[in-house]
Amino acid sequence: MWYRNVEVGMKKILVSSVIAMIMIILVACGGKPKPNDFDWKITAFEAVDQDGQPFHTEQMQGKIWLVNFAFTSCTTVCPPMTFNLTEIQQKLKEKGIEDVHILSFSVDPAIDTPAKIKEFLGKYKADTTQWRFVTGYSQAEIEKYSLEMFKSQVQKVEGDDQVVHTTSVFLVDQEGTVLTRYNGLEPPEDKIVEDVKSLLE
Fold first, then answer.
1. pTM
2. 30-67 b/e with 16+ CB inside 10 Å = b?
3. Higher pLDDT among residues 48 and 30, named by residue
4. Which helix (H) or strand (E) is 115 found in, with range?
5. Rounded-to-integer distance, Cα 67 and Cα 101, Å
6. Contact 73, 183 (CB under 8 A)
7. Residue 89 burial (CB count, 10 A)
8. Strand pairing of 46-48 and 40-41?
9. In terms of DSSP H, where are the helices of the chain?
10. Which long-range contacts (CB under 8 A, 24 or more apart) does 93-98 make?
11. How many CB atoms lie within 10 A of CB 140?
12. Element containing residue 142 per DSSP (H, E)
């Protein structure tokens, strides 16, 4: 009987070893795990950017995007968020990651003309060849789109020139899926770089 116990034990060890090897192979082939906090698909939305050029969310396909919400007359969170995005943009380039785009939605489109947006971005060391700051839609449209696509509230307060909006930065993959978000006021730059790398592997 003892040899049967040994045989059973050897089979268990063999099965465990095979499973372990399969897991190692899968991890090696799959690379780093992709962030998957969310699974929100971007839907159609039209706008114009800081150069007055048409923008459609279809243009996001095949590219990695960092998305945020801001407005040019913001006196609180938008300036530091915009500065932080320029820092992230620079860090990605330093790591040899060139093809990552930034999309900023104006949450005050009645005020934010392309000219005002271009002036606003000009205050920062932003590579605007890969940064689209868009406007050209109604307040109701951006409030609805922000809530439906990014689960984030945008609200312009009556009688106030400031707008309530999220301070998150969202990561959108090449298929137009919102994967995760980061704190735009204190962004985890190393984490963002690693997450972007995982989408390129």
1. 0.82
2. eeeeebeebebebeebebbbbeeeebebeebeeebbbb
3. 48
4. helix 114-121
5. 9
6. no
7. 21
8. unpaired
9. 2-30, 78-94, 114-121, 139-150, 189-200
10. 93/127, 95/193, 95/197, 97/193, 97/196, 97/197, 97/200
11. 9
12. helix 139-150
Residue 179 Cα to chain centre, angstroms: 7
Residue 15 DSSP class: H
Q: What is the pLDDT of residues 96-148, one digit of tens each?
A: 998 999 999 999 999 999 999 999 999 998 999 999 999 999 999 999 999 99
Known binding-site positions for Cu cation: 74, 78, 165
Residue found under tokens 């945008």: 154
How many Å apart are CA 70 and CA 81, to the nearest integer? 8
Cβ contacts of 98 within 8 Å, gap of 6 or more? 92
d(CA 142, CA 83): 23
Contact 122, 86 (CB under 8 A): no
The two tokens of residue 196 are 């972007």
Q: In 3-state terms, what secondary structure has residue 179?
A: strand
Across-strand partners of 156?
A: 163
Helix (H) or strand (E) segment spanning residue 134: strand 131-134
Annotated binding-site residues read: 74, 78, 165
Backbone φ and ψ of 183, nearest 5°: -75, 115
- Residue 48 DSSP symbol: E
